[in-house]
Design goal:
The protein contains 15 helices and six strands. Strands 1-2-6-5-4-3 form a six-stranded antiparallel beta sheet. Strand 3 and strand 4 form a beta hairpin. Helix 5 runs antiparallel to helix 9 and helix 5 runs antiparallel to helix 12. The chain binds a DNA duplex through helix 6, helix 12 and helix 13.
DNA sequence: AGCCAGGACACGA
DNA sequence: TCGTGTCATGGC
């Protein structure tokens, strides 16, 4: 997982072109359900619009080229490269996972080019508190509602930044409920209060090892093992995390345990054993593979 | 109408 | 430690 690739960056008519990355699929990465602020622009092709670190990003992939549409200044390019881990050699990761067994080979084939993006811990934490017993489409709606209500407008994009902890802290539980967060509203408010007041330092949690960081996150209301694993994997670089949700539970039971129901704890231990440091990536391919049978219209919008 | 969605939690055995 | 009902909300 070394970050070693040299990227070629060039500008033309205000747009920026990034080349030199290996296995990467923009649409698969943005719409796989790990992040909730990406919108596919147009009904086909590789055009995605999203918000990362308060910036509105309009990205287009043309085979081995990733185009960042204007405004594409140096800092924006750095955000994009960082977020998608474009300097990381991903072909080797996919080859390792595909080599584990035929099932994992099929899973990788179903979502080749899927990257684990580097989300912001605070936004990721709230997003996955919202995710509890919820659908991807509904999570996206709630996150967008929270941003529109307490974030800041971004230029003329019609999109809003995800609210800072201090801004979200000003929202009452009833306010958050109007964003359709449902029974998770209380958890959202408590998390905002604790982070805003410095009682929980997400940077400090990020610096901890996987076990300690997970233990710390689980202290929050609305954060159990699954949500903690998602935050650790998607925003804190803990690639050994293996979030077990209903899809993964079904997939593993059916593909590896002969259909016998297995406890989530057993699945986590099995995954740690089988995948080790690649557990997080393996989980994402399995997740994409398991959801493949569901039509696209159920996953976007 | 009832079940499900990237679950967590309180409760009871 | 393990199973069960419940918690909003929307799509099927």
């Amino acid at each position: 997982m070394g970050e070693s690739r040299k990227l070629a960056v060039s500008w033309r008519d205000g747009a920026c072109s990034i080349r030199g990355f290996d296995s990467f699929d923009l649409h698969t990465t943005c719409q796989c359900g790990q992040a909730f602020r990406w919108v596919r622009a147009g009904n086909a092709g590789q055009l995605e619009e999203g918000v990362v670190q308060g910036r509105f990003l309009r990205l287009e992939q043309r085979d081995a080229e990733l185009v960042v549409h204007p405004p594409a200044d140096d800092e924006t390019i750095a955000v994009v490269v960082d977020y998608f881990r474009l300097r990381q050699s991903h072909t080797a990761v996919e080859a390792s996972i595909a080599g584990i067994d035929p099932t994992m080979a099929a899973a990788v084939d179903s979502a080749r080019g899927l990257r684990l993006v580097a989300q912001e811990p605070w936004e990721c934490l709230i997003s996955y508190i919202v995710s509890a017993n919820n659908s991807v489409a509904q999570i996206s709606r709630v996150v967008e509602n929270l941003s529109r209500a307490w974030g800041k407008p971004i230029g003329s994009s019609s999109r809003y930044s995800f609210p800072a902890p201090g801004d979200l802290e000003r929202a009452s539980q009833a306010d958050v409920l109007t964003c359709k967060a449902g029974f998770r509203s209380r958890s959202i408010c408590e998390a905002a209060r604790r982070v805003a007041r410095g009682e929980l330092d997400l940077n400090a949690v990020t610096a901890m090892d996987y076990r300690a960081a997970k233990q710390e996150l689980i202290r929050l209301r609305g954060v159990g093992e699954k949500v903690a694993d998602c935050v650790l994997l998607f925003s804190m670089g803990k690639f050994e995390a293996f979030p077990v949700d209903v899809w993964i539970e079904r997939a593993v039971r059916h593909l590896y345990f002969g259909g016998e129901k297995t406890s989530q704890r057993d699945i986590r231990e099995w995954a740690e054993d089988k995948f080790g440091d690649l557990a997080g990536y393996a989980q994402e391919y399995l997740f994409a593979y398991a959801r493949l049978a569901i039509p696209d219209r159920l996953r976007s919008g």
